[in-house]
Design goal:
eleven-stranded antiparallel beta sheet, 4 helices, conserved putative lor/sdh protein from methanococcus maripaludis s2 fold, elongated, about 350 residues, six-stranded mixed beta sheet, alpha+beta
Length: about 350
């Protein structure tokens, strides 16, 4: 009986001691958070689309005449031209030879005929000034000179048909193989050339965006093989008509590909910049909380989480412009905000700038 009384007394004493210990209230618990000091930056409102990038200049050249095939050497390498090599405008890549055809043109004879006609014209001019010939006789020599000049120009044009020349600066993208000095027929494929330093793409944009998209708006061009590079583009043309089938309208984009980073035929992403804000408060979209029509975020002031109502402006895929509610250098809570309440105590784990 004494042992039982002693045990009861000991338990009562223990409970009393526990009741005298200080209590921790929920408001004293510090929630761990990460913060970011807000800095001003720029943000763009984008309309996203995608399409195939194509070369602005593209040509497949065929032989205008038949003849013996000769692939010429590239002056830069000293070796025959090959795929991927650059060519200059009017540079001869392939020459066809046909002696019978060249003899039939008789270009040397036509040069001589022009020279004789010009000499006769000069003689007739001198005689006309001295009264030795009539005006008609002098003008007839002018006709002969003109006809001789046309004959020579046509002969040069026909002779140039034996040369396959680049019509513009570009890159060889196709080059069918023919054995040297074998005869190829007229209209045989010879070489394909592209200039893709300037490219274009046709895209279809939703009907809902037609009020935002205008000519000359900038466009960001990206490709998954170039994660760190963004090329510059611009809206060059757009159709005012909406397709009744797809509810979209056609738009053409010109792309500056001077560094040749994207290749013809690549499927690229196009982000049309329809609005832009400079020197704006920019925050990640995923930290914005909402309650009915209210948008808010948490910032840290003296170890306490403060809820700030905000008003947003331009948004992109990841960020939003804040036009009311935040200031530069505010410490925005970017992790650990999900369970916070206004005036909650927080412990900052790290500062992400």
């Amino acid at each position: 009986m004494k042992y039982r009384n002693f045990l009861i007394i000991a338990m009562v004493g223990l409970l009393a001691a526990c009741n005298n210990q200080p209590q921790t209230t929920p408001s004293d618990i510090e929630t761990p958070v990460s913060i970011k000091e807000i800095q001003k930056g720029s943000i763009s409102k984008l309309i996203n689309s995608s399409g195939t990038a194509l070369a602005t200049y593209n040509v497949d050249l065929n032989s205008e005449m038949s003849g013996l095939y000769n692939l010429l050497n590239n002056p830069k390498t000293g070796k025959p031209f090959k795929l991927g090599e650059a060519v200059k405008k009017n540079q001869t890549i392939i020459r066809l030879e046909d002696k019978a055809y060249e003899n039939g043109i008789a270009i040397d004879s036509k040069k001589l005929s022009l020279e004789i006609a010009e000499q006769e014209q000069n003689k007739q001019k001198d005689l006309y000034e001295k009264g030795g010939v009539t005006l008609t006789e002098m003008r007839n020599t002018e006709v002969r000179v003109t006809n001789s000049r046309y004959d020579l120009e046509n002969a040069k044009i026909n002779l140039e048909k034996m040369n396959v020349m680049a019509p513009f600066d570009g890159i060889i993208v196709s080059l069918p193989h023919y054995t040297a000095n074998t005869r190829v027929t007229q209209n045989s494929p010879m070489v394909g050339i592209m200039d893709y330093s300037r490219m274009y793409m046709d895209i279809n944009l939703p009907e809902s965006t037609i009020e935002y998209v205008k000519a000359n708006q900038p466009v960001h061009i990206t490709h998954y093989t170039l994660p760190d590079d963004t090329l510059k583009g611009v809206i060059s043309e757009l159709s005012p008509a909406i397709s009744t089938e797809t509810r979209t309208f056609k738009t053409k984009i010109l792309i500056d590909n001077t560094a040749l980073k994207i290749r013809p035929g690549m499927f690229v992403k196009a982000d049309v910049v329809v609005d832009r804000a400079e020197s704006a408060i920019i925050i990640p979209k995923n930290v914005i909380l909402s309650n009915r029509n209210r948008k808010y975020v948490y910032i840290v002031e003296r170890g306490t989480a403060i809820a700030r109502n905000i008003k947003t402006g331009i948004e992109d895929e990841d960020n939003a412009e804040v036009i009311e509610g935040l200031n530069e250098n505010d410490n925005l809570i970017i992790r650990g905000f999900e369970t916070l309440r206004d005036n909650s105590r927080v412990k900052v784990l790290n500062l992400n700038n």
